[in-house]
Amino acid sequence: xxxxxxxxxxxxxxxxxxxxxxxxxxxxxxxxxxxxxxxxxxxxxxxxxxxxxxxxxxxxxxxxxxxxxxxxxxxxxxxxxxxxxxxxxxxxxxxxxxxxxxxxxxxxxxxxxxxxxxxxxxxxxxxxxxxxxxxxxxxxxxxxxxxxxxxxxxxxxxxxxxxxxxxxxxxxxxxxxxxxxxxxxxxxxxxxxxxxxxxxxxxxxxxxxxxxxxxxxxxxxxxxxxxxxxxxxxxxxxxxxxxxxxxxxxxxxxxxxxxxxxxxxxxxxxxxxxxxxxxxxxxxxxxxxxxxxxxxxxxxxxxxxxxxxxxxxxxxxxxxxxxxxxxxxxxxxxxxxxxxxxxxxxxxxxxxxxxxxxxxxxxxxxxxxxxxxxxxxxxxxxxxxxxxxxxxxxxxxxxxxxxxxxxxxxxxxxxxxxxxxx
Length: 422
Ligand SMILES: Cc1ncc(COP(=O)(O)O)c(C=O)c1O
Prior knowledge:
The protein has 422 residues and is an alpha/beta fold. The protein has two domains: 4-44 and 328-418, Aspartate Aminotransferase, domain 1 (Alpha-Beta Complex); 59-324, 3-Layer(aba) Sandwich (Aspartate Aminotransferase, domain 2), CATH 3.40.640.10. 37% of the residues lie in helices and 13% in strands. The chain has helices at 10-13, 43-52, 66-76, 88-100, 110-113, 155-166, 178-186, 204-210, 235-244, 264-269, 297-306, 314-324, 327-350, 372-381, 405-418; strands spanning 30-31, 83-87, 168-173, 189-194, 219-223, 248-252, 273-278, 290-295, 354-355, 362-366, 384-385, 398-401. It has a seven-stranded mixed sheet, sandwiched between helices. Strand 3, helix 7 (178-186) and strand 4 (189-194) form a beta-alpha-beta unit. Helix 4 packs across helix 7 (178-186). The longest helix has 24 residues, at 327-350. It starts with 9 loop residues before the first helix and ends with a helix. The model is unreliable at 108-150 (pLDDT under 50). The site of pyridoxal-5'-phosphate (PLP) has 13 residues, from helix 4. The site of pyridoxal-5'-phosphate has 13 residues, from helix 4.
C-alpha cells in the first residue's frame, strides 16, 4: 500500500485552503468576526422552517429550486432562466471557476514552455464597442485584434497570451480571500491586482497603464461593496470595467443590502456579467447556505449544468422563499445595522481609530497604540471576537462586524479600557 499522502493530487497537497473565521462556542462571547447578521430570521421564516420539519425530510428537495427562482425572478424583474441558486454563494463562485476557466496546461506544455517570455500581463487591449454582445464563442476567447497602434502582433505571442487568459481567475487585492483558493483548486492562474488608494476601484485607463490587469481574463471577481474595506463602488464605474472585460465578470454583492447602490441591472444588461447574492448576511441565513447568481441565461445554464443535482437543501429553499415574503422585516434590520455602523464608526474614530467609510455590515479600522494583532488578543481576552488578516494590505487593521447596539457598545467600552480612557 502506498503512502496515502502520495495518493493525493499534487495540486491539492500544495493547496493553502480558505480559512474561515472562527466559530468558537464560548459562553458570553460577542462574535463580531464573520459578518453574520446580529438579528435572527423573521418569525415567519422560523415558522416556515419548523412547519417543514416532518416526514418529508426523507424526500429529495426540488432539484432546481424552482419556486425560489420564480420568486427571485419576480423580485429582480427577469426570467427564472436568468437565475441559478447555490449552496451559499461560495458554491456558485466555485462553479463559475469550473464553468468559465480552463485549468492551466500542465508543466512542460507549450503554454508553460512559453512562460520564460516574461511578456507584460496585459498589453493594451482594444476597447470593446459600447453595448457589445459577448462573442459567440466561449467567454474569454474573443479573438485578439491588432495591438493598440495596429502594429505587428507576433501570432505565437498572441496565442500564448490568449491561452494564459483562458486559464486566468482575476481579482483585486484586497478582496474576498476565497478567490485565489478557487483558482488554485482548479489549477488555474490567479491574477491578483492591487486596488487603488483607500481601496478605490482603479479606472480602466489606470488598469491599462498598470499593465497587470488582464482584459481578456476568463473570469474576473469583483467584491462590491469591497471586503474587507467596506468601500462601495458606483454602478457606473463597475459598468465601464465590465464592458472592457472580454471574459465573465462576477460582481460579488454579498454585502450589497447595506449599501446605497447595487449593480444588479448590469447582470440583466451585459451578457458577460453575473451578480452573486447571498441570503447569509443581510437575511440572517448563513446556517442554511443559500446564494444565487443572476445573469445571461447562457452563463446561468453553464453553471446549472455542472452543479450537483440537489445542491440546495430543502429547508434552505423554504426559508429563502419565506424570507422573500417578509422583506419589510429585513429592511428594518438593514436600517438598524446601518445606524449602528454609523454610531460605532464615530465612537471608534473618537478613540483614535482610523475608520474607513463602510457600505457593508462591518468596519475596517486601524487601531491606535497597539498593533492590530495585539488588539485582537486584547479584545478576545474581554470575550470580544473581531477579525484580523495577516495580509500585507490590511495587517494594520481590524475588521469588525456590526452587532446589536448592546454588542457594539460593549466593544466601544472594551476599546476605552484597553486605551486606559475613563
Ligand atoms: C465577499 C463574499 N462573498 C461571498 C461570501 C460567501 O457567502 P455565502 O455564505 O453565501 O457562501 C462571503 C462570505 O463571507 C463574502 O464575504
